[in-house]
Please model this.
Amino acid sequence: MAVNAPVWREIKASYAFVERNTNLSKRYWGWELTFLLYTVAQSASVIYIAYATPGAVGKHIDPHPFVLYLAIGALTWSYMANMFMAIAESVQWERWEGTIEYTMMAPINVFTYIVGSCLFGVLYGLVRTSLVLVALIFLFHLEANPAGLLPALAIVTLGSVSFIGLGIMAATLPLLFTEKGAQMTYVIEACLLLISGVYFPISVLPSWMQPLSHLSPATYVLSGIRDVLLKHPTSTIMVHTLVPLAVIGILTVPLGFWVFSWAEHYAKRTGRLKRTG
Amino acid sequence: MNGVLELKVAEDLIARRSAVDRALHVVHVSKYFGGPSRFNRPGKKQPKRVSAVDDVSLTVMRGEIYGVLGANGSGKSTLIRLISTLLLPDAGSVEVFGLDVVTEAAQVKRLINRVSVEASLFKKLSAMENLTYAARLYSVDTRAARTNVIRILGALGISEARIRQPVEKMSRGMQQKVSIARALLTSPVMLLLDEPTTGLDPRSKKDVQKFVLDLRDSHDATVLLTSHDMEEADALCDRLAIVDKGRIVVEGTPLALKEEYMRRHRLDTLPSLEDVFMEVTGRSLEDSDFDPDAEDEVMSGS
Model:
């Protein structure tokens, strides 16, 4: 019991971040609604490309597989990007409010801080993406292979863990670069969008860029989900998707914790916790 | 032989007692910002190293209210951050109740809390939401915390209805009281107050000052208070140190410092603490050429 008490204390403390961020989201409900509308509009704009393509290429082809291809890209990216940014912006958010020193002064482990931020990131990403999904089903009458839904869920779950590692590393940028750190996280997000095959297969990328795609967990998540929802889920697909995701997760999550701890130490040595960005 | 043994035991007891009674022990601490780094290109002008805290040593006993007085940019806030585990010292050591702030930071964090010149709250959240968040981080039972929030803020003159409103709708004084409640909620044995009354209206200032005294008397807390308000320091502090350019230039009880000045200048009446401050630092607070953000700029190395 004595051994578990500190662990339980840290788990309960991590909930503080979930509750705080949920309260903040509720208070910023107007902005949340605006951003939701933005995401729906952006996703719909991309999906309409599928309907325009037959006319643009001058061939009569069924646009529906392409609609689903783009919808999977839009929804998966909506979830991944929201989760990534919720984690990556956790430090920046505290800088805006001027509370970072108080959080860093609290008697909690750095893991607790990160786990709490990640938990909220996952929940936030899921809720937002579910709402976007409802809007897209309404607009495009999306229909996917029902047999692929559970495998897709497994892929998203493991993919989330891999993405969390990247999010933690991105969260260190506002710790290290007090004024421009947040903007740097947007650059990372944009690069991931480019190389992960969100709206196009990675085969269309220049040959020098394609190896970079294999470093992004989103590449495996997207190709895996498309395979199980547009084709048929097979064990080969699952192995080829889940194994790389597990490897990336095993590497990036501990690396993320290590990088964050190092950044915290550096910020305390150089006085960068104070400056509000 | 017995006499020697008894003396040794007595010495050990005194040493142990003083270690327990010593709330804060700062030994030759220095903190620098900026200066040359391996990332600076050779041939380019190297950034200047700024000394924010320079070889500071002080001891605060349990239950004391100890003041650190100085102009803006004199190193007061940097010293508080070093004690708060938010900065790592470049030299020297800091101990809070015998625990080192660098190697035993986790335990030190459980003993301390801080109120700074800025309230530093989530402005969109209510006082209750802000304080519940703090309670969770410090493993304080949230149900008990909610009751305590109402009690503490009530004592500071904030009604229950206001507690549930967003902090952004509160005045600066009220926000600062919420910040004080946040610190008290965690029952710290050492409270670090970094200019807690700066910018407050006279009534709020009085409320906060009364609360600091109550805290020491009824909660057995040790208080380290930084200020550039001489009257406040005179009224609250048992002992104080005046700092200038990161160094302690004089230390003692307010009365002793004033008496020493009176004796040196052969005066008939006690001078003000400001007179003492001007003499030992060579400048007045009003004439100070420091700007309010000076220390923050020092910290960012700019």
User: Anything to note?
Assistant: Residues 12 and 182 of chain B are 38 Å apart (CA to CA). The two ends of chain B are 63 Å apart (CA to CA).
